[in-house]
Amino acid sequence: MKYDIAIIGGGPAGLMAAERAGELGASVILLEKNSEPGTKLLLTGGGRCNLTNNVQDPRAFVARLGQEAKFLLSALNKFGVIETLEFFQSRALPTRVENDNRVFPLSNRATDVLEVLIKDLKKYQVEIRPESQVKKIITKDDKIVKIVLTDGQEILANNFILATGGKAYPQTGSDGDGYKWLAQFGHTIISPRPSLCPILIEADFIKELEGLSVSEARLNLYQGTKKIVSTDGDIIFTSNGLSGPAALDLSRFIDDEAIKNLSLEVDFLPQFEISALDKKLQQVLKTSSKQIKNSLDGLVMPKFKPVLFKLSLLDGEKKSNVINRAERLALVKLIKSFKLKIKGLAGFDKAMVTKGGANLAEIEPKTMRSKKINNLFICGELLGLAGPTGGYNLQICWTSGYVAGEGAVD
Ligand SMILES: Cc1cc2nc3c(=O)[nH]c(=O)nc-3n(C[C@H](O)[C@H](O)[C@H](O)COP(=O)(O)OP(=O)(O)OC[C@H]3O[C@@H](n4cnc5c(N)ncnc54)[C@H](O)[C@@H]3O)c2cc1C
User: Fold this and answer.
1) Which CATH class for the 2-194+354-409 domain?
2) H helix or E strand, kind and range, residue 221
3) What is the residue extent of each domain of the chain?
Protein backbone atom coordinates (compact mmCIF):
# COMPACT_ATOMS: atom_id res chain seq x y z
CA MET A 1 0.00 0.00 0.00
CA LYS A 2 1.19 3.51 -0.77
CA TYR A 3 0.00 6.20 1.66
CA ASP A 4 -0.55 9.83 0.75
CA ILE A 5 1.56 10.84 3.73
CA ALA A 6 3.93 9.05 6.11
CA ILE A 7 4.81 10.90 9.31
CA ILE A 8 7.87 9.94 11.35
CA GLY A 9 7.52 10.79 15.04
CA GLY A 10 4.42 10.82 17.23
CA GLY A 11 5.14 13.86 19.40
CA PRO A 12 2.93 16.97 19.46
CA ALA A 13 4.20 18.15 16.05
CA GLY A 14 3.69 14.78 14.32
CA LEU A 15 0.29 14.29 15.97
CA MET A 16 -0.93 17.72 14.88
CA ALA A 17 0.39 17.16 11.35
CA ALA A 18 -1.43 13.81 11.22
CA GLU A 19 -4.60 15.41 12.52
CA ARG A 20 -4.64 18.14 9.87
CA ALA A 21 -3.69 15.85 6.98
CA GLY A 22 -6.31 13.31 8.10
CA GLU A 23 -8.95 16.01 8.42
CA LEU A 24 -8.24 17.03 4.82
CA GLY A 25 -8.91 13.47 3.68
CA ALA A 26 -5.38 12.15 3.11
CA SER A 27 -4.44 8.56 3.88
CA VAL A 28 -1.89 8.94 6.65
CA ILE A 29 0.42 6.63 8.58
CA LEU A 30 2.09 7.85 11.79
CA LEU A 31 5.24 5.95 12.74
CA GLU A 32 6.37 6.11 16.36
CA LYS A 33 9.20 4.08 17.84
CA ASN A 34 7.80 4.06 21.39
CA SER A 35 4.96 1.80 22.46
CA GLU A 36 2.66 4.84 22.34
CA PRO A 37 2.78 8.31 20.82
CA GLY A 38 3.14 11.43 22.98
CA THR A 39 5.61 10.21 25.63
CA LYS A 40 7.17 13.65 26.08
CA LEU A 41 3.85 15.46 25.74
CA LEU A 42 2.63 13.60 28.83
CA LEU A 43 5.54 15.03 30.86
CA THR A 44 4.94 18.62 29.86
CA GLY A 45 4.09 21.18 32.50
CA GLY A 46 4.80 18.63 35.22
CA GLY A 47 2.04 16.40 33.77
CA ARG A 48 -0.37 19.35 33.46
CA CYS A 49 0.71 20.39 29.92
CA ASN A 50 1.35 24.09 29.52
CA LEU A 51 -0.02 23.86 26.00
CA THR A 52 0.53 27.42 24.80
CA ASN A 53 1.15 30.97 25.94
CA ASN A 54 -1.73 33.37 25.57
CA VAL A 55 0.20 35.90 23.50
CA GLN A 56 -2.33 35.98 20.70
CA ASP A 57 -0.71 38.48 18.33
CA PRO A 58 1.71 36.52 16.09
CA ARG A 59 4.21 39.42 16.05
CA ALA A 60 4.26 39.64 19.82
CA PHE A 61 4.58 35.86 20.00
CA VAL A 62 7.63 35.68 17.73
CA ALA A 63 9.21 38.62 19.55
CA ARG A 64 9.43 36.37 22.62
CA LEU A 65 11.38 33.73 20.69
CA GLY A 66 14.09 35.86 19.06
CA GLN A 67 15.07 37.15 15.60
CA GLU A 68 15.00 33.82 13.76
CA ALA A 69 11.37 33.21 14.78
CA LYS A 70 10.09 35.62 12.12
CA PHE A 71 10.17 32.44 10.05
CA LEU A 72 7.07 31.31 11.98
CA LEU A 73 4.95 34.42 11.29
CA SER A 74 2.99 33.20 8.28
CA ALA A 75 2.35 29.81 9.88
CA LEU A 76 1.18 31.53 13.08
CA ASN A 77 -1.17 33.67 11.02
CA LYS A 78 -2.75 30.47 9.75
CA PHE A 79 -2.72 28.46 12.99
CA GLY A 80 -1.56 30.54 15.92
CA VAL A 81 -2.49 30.80 19.58
CA ILE A 82 -6.13 31.76 18.93
CA GLU A 83 -6.66 28.84 16.55
CA THR A 84 -4.91 26.44 18.95
CA LEU A 85 -7.17 27.47 21.81
CA GLU A 86 -10.22 27.12 19.56
CA PHE A 87 -8.94 23.75 18.38
CA PHE A 88 -8.81 22.29 21.89
CA GLN A 89 -11.89 24.09 23.20
CA SER A 90 -14.01 22.87 20.27
CA ARG A 91 -12.92 19.34 21.16
CA ALA A 92 -14.23 19.56 24.71
CA LEU A 93 -10.91 20.56 26.25
CA PRO A 94 -11.50 23.88 28.03
CA THR A 95 -8.37 25.75 29.07
CA ARG A 96 -7.33 28.23 31.74
CA VAL A 97 -4.79 31.06 31.60
CA GLU A 98 -2.42 31.19 34.57
CA ASN A 99 0.42 33.52 35.53
CA ASP A 100 2.66 34.83 32.72
CA ASN A 101 -0.07 33.91 30.21
CA ARG A 102 0.62 30.20 30.57
CA VAL A 103 -2.32 28.14 29.27
CA PHE A 104 -3.24 24.77 30.80
CA PRO A 105 -6.17 22.41 30.28
CA LEU A 106 -8.82 23.09 32.93
CA SER A 107 -8.53 19.43 33.91
CA ASN A 108 -4.78 19.91 34.61
CA ARG A 109 -4.07 16.70 32.71
CA ALA A 110 -1.65 16.32 29.82
CA THR A 111 -3.32 12.98 29.11
CA ASP A 112 -6.47 14.87 28.11
CA VAL A 113 -4.50 16.87 25.52
CA LEU A 114 -3.09 13.69 24.04
CA GLU A 115 -6.52 12.05 24.09
CA VAL A 116 -8.04 14.87 22.02
CA LEU A 117 -5.43 14.33 19.32
CA ILE A 118 -5.65 10.53 19.33
CA LYS A 119 -9.44 10.69 19.14
CA ASP A 120 -9.22 12.88 16.03
CA LEU A 121 -6.62 10.62 14.45
CA LYS A 122 -8.97 7.68 14.91
CA LYS A 123 -11.88 9.69 13.50
CA TYR A 124 -9.84 10.47 10.37
CA GLN A 125 -8.60 6.88 10.12
CA VAL A 126 -4.96 7.79 10.53
CA GLU A 127 -3.00 4.57 10.95
CA ILE A 128 -1.02 4.93 14.17
CA ARG A 129 1.89 2.50 14.12
CA PRO A 130 3.69 2.33 17.50
CA GLU A 131 6.91 0.35 18.03
CA SER A 132 7.94 1.33 14.52
CA GLN A 133 11.40 2.79 14.51
CA VAL A 134 12.48 4.27 11.22
CA LYS A 135 16.00 3.17 10.38
CA LYS A 136 16.58 4.50 6.88
CA ILE A 137 15.05 6.99 4.50
CA ILE A 138 15.71 6.21 0.85
CA THR A 139 15.85 9.08 -1.64
CA LYS A 140 16.11 9.26 -5.42
CA ASP A 141 16.42 12.43 -7.50
CA ASP A 142 15.74 14.82 -4.60
CA LYS A 143 12.65 12.87 -3.50
CA ILE A 144 12.03 10.35 -0.77
CA VAL A 145 10.84 7.08 -2.24
CA LYS A 146 10.44 4.96 0.88
CA ILE A 147 11.34 4.54 4.49
CA VAL A 148 12.66 1.38 6.08
CA LEU A 149 11.89 0.34 9.65
CA THR A 150 14.33 -1.48 11.93
CA ASP A 151 12.41 -4.73 11.37
CA GLY A 152 12.95 -4.37 7.61
CA GLN A 153 9.41 -3.30 6.71
CA GLU A 154 9.20 -0.69 3.99
CA ILE A 155 6.72 2.18 3.98
CA LEU A 156 5.79 3.92 0.73
CA ALA A 157 4.14 7.32 0.53
CA ASN A 158 3.85 10.33 -1.76
CA ASN A 159 4.88 12.84 0.89
CA PHE A 160 6.78 12.52 4.16
CA ILE A 161 6.77 14.57 7.35
CA LEU A 162 9.73 14.48 9.68
CA ALA A 163 8.72 15.17 13.28
CA THR A 164 11.30 13.25 15.30
CA GLY A 165 11.95 16.07 17.79
CA GLY A 166 15.32 17.30 19.00
CA LYS A 167 17.83 15.77 21.40
CA ALA A 168 16.38 16.91 24.72
CA TYR A 169 15.17 14.23 27.15
CA PRO A 170 16.37 11.41 24.87
CA GLN A 171 14.82 8.93 27.30
CA THR A 172 11.45 9.90 25.73
CA GLY A 173 12.56 8.77 22.27
CA SER A 174 13.90 11.97 20.71
CA ASP A 175 17.58 11.20 20.31
CA GLY A 176 18.51 13.16 17.21
CA ASP A 177 17.69 10.79 14.30
CA GLY A 178 16.07 13.64 12.37
CA TYR A 179 19.24 15.76 12.31
CA LYS A 180 21.23 12.88 10.88
CA TRP A 181 18.80 12.35 8.00
CA LEU A 182 18.44 16.05 7.28
CA ALA A 183 22.21 16.40 7.07
CA GLN A 184 22.29 13.49 4.60
CA PHE A 185 19.70 15.31 2.48
CA GLY A 186 21.94 18.38 2.29
CA HIS A 187 20.26 20.45 5.03
CA THR A 188 22.49 22.60 7.20
CA ILE A 189 22.14 21.66 10.86
CA ILE A 190 22.90 24.42 13.34
CA SER A 191 24.69 22.65 16.16
CA PRO A 192 21.99 21.27 18.51
CA ARG A 193 22.55 22.40 22.12
CA PRO A 194 20.59 21.89 25.34
CA SER A 195 18.28 24.72 26.30
CA LEU A 196 15.82 25.33 29.13
CA CYS A 197 17.99 23.25 31.41
CA PRO A 198 19.52 23.64 34.87
CA ILE A 199 22.68 25.74 35.15
CA LEU A 200 25.69 24.13 36.83
CA ILE A 201 27.49 26.36 39.34
CA GLU A 202 31.03 26.18 40.63
CA ALA A 203 31.02 27.15 44.32
CA ASP A 204 32.05 25.32 47.45
CA PHE A 205 28.86 26.46 49.24
CA ILE A 206 26.45 25.25 46.54
CA LYS A 207 25.54 22.01 48.33
CA GLU A 208 24.59 23.98 51.45
CA LEU A 209 21.97 25.82 49.40
CA GLU A 210 20.39 22.66 47.94
CA GLY A 211 16.61 22.93 48.19
CA LEU A 212 16.56 26.71 48.71
CA SER A 213 13.63 27.88 46.67
CA VAL A 214 13.02 31.56 46.04
CA SER A 215 9.91 32.97 44.45
CA GLU A 216 10.16 35.97 42.16
CA ALA A 217 13.92 36.27 42.14
CA ARG A 218 15.84 38.00 39.35
CA LEU A 219 18.81 36.46 37.56
CA ASN A 220 21.27 38.70 35.72
CA LEU A 221 23.68 37.24 33.18
CA TYR A 222 26.93 39.13 32.54
CA GLN A 223 29.43 38.86 29.74
CA GLY A 224 32.52 40.33 31.31
CA THR A 225 31.13 43.43 33.00
CA LYS A 226 28.20 43.88 30.63
CA LYS A 227 24.74 42.69 31.68
CA ILE A 228 23.36 40.83 28.67
CA VAL A 229 20.03 39.55 29.93
CA SER A 230 17.83 39.24 33.03
CA THR A 231 15.08 36.78 33.83
CA ASP A 232 12.50 37.03 36.61
CA GLY A 233 10.71 34.19 38.34
CA ASP A 234 11.08 31.32 40.73
CA ILE A 235 14.44 29.61 41.21
CA ILE A 236 15.53 26.55 43.15
CA PHE A 237 19.08 25.66 44.16
CA THR A 238 20.06 22.06 43.42
CA SER A 239 23.04 20.05 44.69
CA ASN A 240 25.18 21.43 41.86
CA GLY A 241 23.46 24.49 40.49
CA LEU A 242 20.29 26.37 39.78
CA SER A 243 16.94 25.29 38.37
CA GLY A 244 13.38 26.67 38.30
CA PRO A 245 11.71 28.74 35.56
CA ALA A 246 13.98 31.83 35.79
CA ALA A 247 17.13 29.67 35.62
CA LEU A 248 15.76 27.51 32.79
CA ASP A 249 14.88 30.62 30.79
CA LEU A 250 18.32 32.10 31.38
CA SER A 251 19.98 28.90 30.13
CA ARG A 252 18.82 29.85 26.62
CA PHE A 253 21.51 32.52 26.60
CA ILE A 254 24.37 30.34 27.86
CA ASP A 255 26.61 28.72 25.29
CA ASP A 256 29.41 26.37 26.22
CA GLU A 257 31.88 28.20 23.98
CA ALA A 258 31.22 31.54 25.67
CA ILE A 259 31.05 30.23 29.22
CA LYS A 260 34.45 31.46 30.37
CA ASN A 261 33.26 35.01 29.92
CA LEU A 262 29.85 34.60 31.54
CA SER A 263 28.84 35.11 35.15
CA LEU A 264 25.58 35.00 36.97
CA GLU A 265 24.10 37.18 39.68
CA VAL A 266 21.04 36.41 41.80
CA ASP A 267 18.93 39.28 43.08
CA PHE A 268 16.92 37.69 45.90
CA LEU A 269 14.76 40.79 46.43
CA PRO A 270 14.30 42.56 43.07
CA GLN A 271 11.31 44.48 44.46
CA PHE A 272 13.74 46.60 46.55
CA GLU A 273 16.23 49.08 45.10
CA ILE A 274 19.61 48.84 46.84
CA SER A 275 18.99 52.02 48.86
CA ALA A 276 15.47 50.91 49.85
CA LEU A 277 16.75 47.55 51.05
CA ASP A 278 19.51 49.25 53.02
CA LYS A 279 16.94 51.51 54.68
CA LYS A 280 14.71 48.54 55.48
CA LEU A 281 17.61 46.59 57.00
CA GLN A 282 18.65 49.64 58.99
CA GLN A 283 15.16 49.88 60.51
CA VAL A 284 14.92 46.16 61.23
CA LEU A 285 18.39 45.89 62.80
CA LYS A 286 18.46 49.02 64.89
CA THR A 287 15.21 48.17 66.68
CA SER A 288 16.14 44.54 67.35
CA SER A 289 18.06 43.26 70.32
CA LYS A 290 18.09 39.70 68.88
CA GLN A 291 21.12 38.04 67.33
CA ILE A 292 21.29 38.93 63.66
CA LYS A 293 20.68 35.31 62.61
CA ASN A 294 17.21 35.67 64.17
CA SER A 295 16.41 39.14 62.84
CA LEU A 296 16.15 38.81 59.11
CA ASP A 297 12.99 36.70 58.82
CA GLY A 298 10.80 37.76 55.93
CA LEU A 299 13.80 39.20 54.09
CA VAL A 300 16.24 36.29 54.01
CA MET A 301 15.23 32.63 53.70
CA PRO A 302 16.49 30.51 56.65
CA LYS A 303 18.43 28.22 54.30
CA PHE A 304 20.33 31.17 52.84
CA LYS A 305 21.40 32.63 56.19
CA PRO A 306 24.46 30.44 56.97
CA VAL A 307 25.93 31.09 53.51
CA LEU A 308 25.06 34.78 53.72
CA PHE A 309 26.90 35.16 57.04
CA LYS A 310 29.82 33.07 55.87
CA LEU A 311 30.35 35.13 52.70
CA SER A 312 29.80 38.48 54.42
CA LEU A 313 32.24 37.40 57.18
CA LEU A 314 29.59 38.42 59.69
CA ASP A 315 29.09 36.53 62.92
CA GLY A 316 25.44 35.40 62.97
CA GLU A 317 25.53 35.43 66.79
CA LYS A 318 26.20 39.15 66.85
CA LYS A 319 23.44 41.41 68.24
CA SER A 320 21.48 43.13 65.45
CA ASN A 321 21.59 46.63 66.95
CA VAL A 322 25.40 46.70 66.95
CA ILE A 323 25.82 45.86 63.25
CA ASN A 324 27.72 48.70 61.61
CA ARG A 325 27.15 50.31 58.21
CA ALA A 326 29.88 48.36 56.37
CA GLU A 327 28.52 45.06 57.70
CA ARG A 328 24.99 46.01 56.69
CA LEU A 329 26.08 47.04 53.20
CA ALA A 330 27.89 43.71 52.79
CA LEU A 331 24.57 41.95 53.49
CA VAL A 332 22.71 44.20 51.04
CA LYS A 333 25.29 43.47 48.36
CA LEU A 334 24.97 39.71 48.79
CA ILE A 335 21.18 39.82 48.77
CA LYS A 336 20.99 42.07 45.72
CA SER A 337 23.92 40.73 43.69
CA PHE A 338 24.86 37.25 44.79
CA LYS A 339 27.60 36.26 42.33
CA LEU A 340 27.83 32.72 41.00
CA LYS A 341 30.39 31.18 38.68
CA ILE A 342 28.83 29.21 35.82
CA LYS A 343 30.37 25.79 35.21
CA GLY A 344 28.13 24.74 32.34
CA LEU A 345 24.67 23.49 31.50
CA ALA A 346 23.22 20.25 32.81
CA GLY A 347 23.02 18.68 29.33
CA PHE A 348 20.43 17.06 27.08
CA ASP A 349 19.27 14.56 29.71
CA LYS A 350 17.86 17.41 31.78
CA ALA A 351 17.08 19.92 29.01
CA MET A 352 13.48 20.63 28.08
CA VAL A 353 14.28 21.68 24.53
CA THR A 354 17.01 21.77 21.92
CA LYS A 355 18.47 25.01 20.66
CA GLY A 356 19.75 24.94 17.07
CA GLY A 357 18.56 22.40 14.50
CA ALA A 358 17.41 22.56 10.89
CA ASN A 359 18.44 25.84 9.27
CA LEU A 360 15.18 27.73 8.71
CA ALA A 361 16.44 29.34 5.49
CA GLU A 362 16.21 25.91 3.85
CA ILE A 363 12.54 25.38 4.74
CA GLU A 364 9.48 26.96 3.12
CA PRO A 365 7.80 28.93 5.97
CA LYS A 366 4.21 28.65 4.75
CA THR A 367 4.21 24.85 4.46
CA MET A 368 7.39 23.61 6.23
CA ARG A 369 8.42 21.99 2.94
CA SER A 370 12.12 21.20 2.63
CA LYS A 371 13.89 23.20 -0.06
CA LYS A 372 16.26 20.25 -0.55
CA ILE A 373 13.86 17.32 -0.80
CA ASN A 374 10.68 18.09 -2.66
CA ASN A 375 8.30 15.72 -0.89
CA LEU A 376 9.60 16.27 2.65
CA PHE A 377 8.08 18.50 5.34
CA ILE A 378 9.80 19.27 8.65
CA CYS A 379 8.11 20.36 11.88
CA GLY A 380 8.38 20.65 15.66
CA GLU A 381 11.54 20.82 17.71
CA LEU A 382 13.67 19.68 14.75
CA LEU A 383 13.34 23.21 13.41
CA GLY A 384 16.05 25.65 14.45
CA LEU A 385 13.69 27.41 16.83
CA ALA A 386 13.41 27.34 20.62
CA GLY A 387 11.37 29.46 22.96
CA PRO A 388 11.34 30.28 26.66
CA THR A 389 9.32 28.32 29.19
CA GLY A 390 5.61 29.09 29.29
CA GLY A 391 4.00 27.09 26.46
CA TYR A 392 5.93 28.62 23.55
CA ASN A 393 7.63 25.38 22.55
CA LEU A 394 4.44 23.39 22.26
CA GLN A 395 2.90 26.22 20.24
CA ILE A 396 5.83 25.93 17.81
CA CYS A 397 4.83 22.26 17.42
CA TRP A 398 1.09 22.88 17.00
CA THR A 399 1.72 25.64 14.45
CA SER A 400 4.44 23.96 12.40
CA GLY A 401 2.71 20.56 12.60
CA TYR A 402 -0.59 21.99 11.37
CA VAL A 403 0.89 23.76 8.34
CA ALA A 404 3.13 20.79 7.53
CA GLY A 405 0.09 18.47 7.59
CA GLU A 406 -1.79 20.83 5.31
CA GLY A 407 1.24 21.45 3.07
CA ALA A 408 1.79 17.73 2.60
CA VAL A 409 -1.81 17.31 1.35
CA ASP A 410 -1.72 20.05 -1.30
C1 LIG B 1 10.07 17.53 31.00
C2 LIG B 1 9.60 18.42 29.90
C3 LIG B 1 8.56 19.31 30.13
C4 LIG B 1 8.15 20.18 29.11
N5 LIG B 1 7.09 21.01 29.35
C6 LIG B 1 6.67 21.84 28.37
C7 LIG B 1 5.51 22.66 28.56
O8 LIG B 1 4.83 22.58 29.59
N9 LIG B 1 5.17 23.50 27.56
C10 LIG B 1 5.86 23.58 26.38
O11 LIG B 1 5.51 24.38 25.51
N12 LIG B 1 6.90 22.75 26.13
C13 LIG B 1 7.31 21.89 27.09
N14 LIG B 1 8.36 21.03 26.84
C15 LIG B 1 8.95 21.01 25.47
C16 LIG B 1 8.06 20.19 24.54
O17 LIG B 1 7.65 19.02 25.17
C18 LIG B 1 8.82 19.83 23.25
O19 LIG B 1 9.25 21.02 22.64
C20 LIG B 1 7.92 19.04 22.29
O21 LIG B 1 7.53 17.81 22.86
C22 LIG B 1 8.61 18.77 20.96
O23 LIG B 1 7.68 18.08 20.16
P24 LIG B 1 8.09 17.28 18.85
O25 LIG B 1 6.84 16.68 18.34
O26 LIG B 1 8.87 18.14 17.95
O27 LIG B 1 9.09 16.16 19.38
P28 LIG B 1 8.94 15.04 20.53
O29 LIG B 1 7.89 15.39 21.49
O30 LIG B 1 10.31 14.85 21.02
O31 LIG B 1 8.46 13.78 19.71
C32 LIG B 1 9.26 13.14 18.74
C33 LIG B 1 8.84 11.71 18.62
O34 LIG B 1 9.53 11.09 17.54
C35 LIG B 1 9.84 9.77 17.90
N36 LIG B 1 10.99 9.31 17.11
C37 LIG B 1 12.26 9.76 17.16
N38 LIG B 1 13.05 9.09 16.30
C39 LIG B 1 12.25 8.18 15.69
C40 LIG B 1 12.48 7.17 14.71
N41 LIG B 1 13.69 6.96 14.20
N42 LIG B 1 11.44 6.42 14.31
C43 LIG B 1 10.19 6.60 14.83
N44 LIG B 1 9.93 7.53 15.78
C45 LIG B 1 10.94 8.32 16.20
C46 LIG B 1 10.16 9.85 19.38
O47 LIG B 1 10.02 8.60 20.02
C48 LIG B 1 9.15 10.90 19.86
O49 LIG B 1 7.98 10.31 20.36
C50 LIG B 1 8.80 20.16 27.84
C51 LIG B 1 9.83 19.26 27.62
C52 LIG B 1 10.24 18.39 28.63
C53 LIG B 1 11.35 17.44 28.35
Assistant:
1) alpha beta
2) strand 213-223
3) 2-194+354-409, 198-346
